[in-house]
Amino acid sequence: MVDIVSFREQEFARREKNLVNISRQKLVQTKWNIGNFKIVYVMTQVGICGGTKIILEHVNYLTRFKHQVAIVCHFDKPTWFPINPKVEYIKVPFEQELASGIPICDVIVVTYWRDISECIARGIAPVVYFEQGDYHLFDWEHVDDREKDYIYKQLQLPDFIFTVSKGAATRLKKIFNRQADVINNGISSQIFYRRDMLNKNVKSTVNIVAIGSENNSFKGLAGIKQALGILGTRGYHYRFAWITPDEPKERVGDVYVNPKQSKIGELLRKADIYICNSSYEAFSLPVLEAMACGCAVITTKNKGVMEYATDNKNCLMVEMNDPNDIVAKIVKLCDDQVLKTELINEGSKTASMFSWDYIIPIIVDYYRKIACFKPIREYDNLSKEE
């Protein structure tokens, strides 16, 4: 069994040392038109989370568009999300540098900043960094100086960077002085879709749903629990469905640990209200999925949700870290069915604009332009395992 903490520490030290000899990738355009091509996604981890889900959606849809796609990772192929069998999955032994598993390809997509320098050092293909947001974007002031220096240097290396929202792009510019293209995430209309409103009519019990792990404090599950406790003392009857990627320390309501995507869609269609209490998100995909399924949404004003959400139009927005405000918004929706219906209808319209069928062709065109470039030289400073 690999000690992941120790492995990451050793990996960081090794790459930090190698980073001294790696400069920004230099590319030259060698083609002007390209048909089908091969894309390799380099993944630091494939555990259950929204960011991983988005990448796996990418590879599945790109395969359907007849492109060759591969995933390179240290971990076993994930089973929690269905991956198209045409996708090549390359598991690299932990004792080898992850980038050593990259095959000949046309585009290398780095999905986390850890791997940028080593992928560029291989000199195989143009590298594009796909930024989905994390603490290095939204909690930068609490990152220690050594890690800040390391992350900053990594972000200077690729010629191409794209991210999921204008908010994330703004943070990339502010912190790292890097311009990023914005390509929004999409949702699967086969899984997340709306049924009729018959089960959304006025009833004595309101069905509330939230998605997120209590281990990620920025998700704000503690605040949602507090709000539900207050709601109960005020005489409102509710049923709470909590969808989480891992087993919580203390269960509240009906807990669904790592359910299938189809089950998540089913739970959202049964719900009246979806609550997002995140202090930060790069895009906040579950909110969009909830809108698609016909939920009235209550959300914080995090940067990710501001990409598509408008207060009192397709959602109700609450203040950060304010359970009482969440309660007030739940009560408002329970007491005002006209407002609730209006929010649901507008949310459905919003969600319809973010189908993968629309987003993936944009990604294909973006990768196609990058695939026309090649590194102008092979790097000699490939990592030596210590």
How are the SSEs placed, and which strands pair?
Elements: H1 4-18, E1 27-29, E2 38-43, H2 50-64, E3 68-73, E4 88-91, E5 107-110, H3 116-122, E6 127-131, H4 135-138, H5 145-155, E7 160-163, H6 166-176, E8 181-182, E9 205-211, H7 221-233, E10 237-244, E11 254-257, H8 261-270, E12 273-276, H9 285-292, E13 296-300, E14 316-318, H10 323-335, H11 337-351, H12 356-371, E15 373-375
Parallel strand pairs: 2-3, 2-5, 3-4, 5-6, 6-7, 7-8, 9-10, 9-12, 10-11, 12-13, 13-14
Antiparallel strand pairs: 1-15
Characterization of this structure:
The strands form three sheets. The protein has a seven-stranded parallel sheet with strand order 4-3-2-5-6-7-8, sandwiched between helices. Strands 11-10-9-12-13-14 form a six-stranded parallel sheet, with helices on both faces. Helices cover 36% and strands 18% of the residues. The longest helix has 16 residues, at 356-371. Helix 9 (285-292) packs across helix 11. Mean pLDDT is 93; it is low at 379-386. It has two domains: 21-186 and 358-375, Rossmann fold (3-Layer(aba) Sandwich), CATH 3.40.50; 197-354, Glycogen Phosphorylase B (Rossmann fold, 3-Layer(aba) Sandwich). It has helices at 4-18, 50-64, 116-122, 135-138, 145-155, 166-176, 221-233, 261-270, 285-292, 323-335, 337-351, 356-371; strands at 27-29, 38-43, 68-73, 88-91, 107-110, 127-131, 160-163, 181-182, 205-211, 237-244, 254-257, 273-276, 296-300, 316-318, 373-375. 42% of the residues are buried. The chain contains twelve helices and 15 strands. It is α/β, with parallel strands linked by helices.
